[in-house]
Amino acid sequence: MTAKDLTHLHAETLDDLPTLTLAELCRACTVHAEWVIELVDEGIIEPAGRRREQWRFYGYSLQRIRVVQRLQQDLGVNLAGAALALELLDEVSTLRQRLAAREDH
After folding, report:
1. How does pLDDT run across 22-73, given as a tens digit for each residue?
2. Overall domain count for the chain
3. Considering 4, 5, 42, 86, which has the largest number of Cβ atoms within 10 A of its Cβ?
4. Residue 75 is part of a domain; what is its CATH number?
5. What Å distances lie between residue 9 and 6, 12, 47, 53, 84, CA to CA?
6. What SS3 state is found at 17?
7. CA–CA separation, 71 vs 85, rounded Å?
């Protein structure tokens, strides 16, 4: 196993495990909890846990929040628009992965 494989494995593990509390996520992204709750309500990020006190966020939530911040700051996109943009970016990523898998075979 190469160092690249280990890095990829480590990153996947961090994304698969809900590790960040709401407060930790807010600190990491320098945002208010109310804004994160709006992201959850909009379906942009999904916490594990039913009640806010139990919420734990996955590592990929950090990346999604940063993308939303950039969309809002740079383009003035509202949360609904950011959710749509993220959905389209996810779809493009999935299609690229499928294409790469086809090219490997």
Report:
1. 999 999 999 999 999 999 999 999 999 999 999 999 989 999 999 999 999 9
2. 1
3. 86
4. 1.10.1660.10
5. 5, 5, 22, 30, 29
6. coil
7. 9
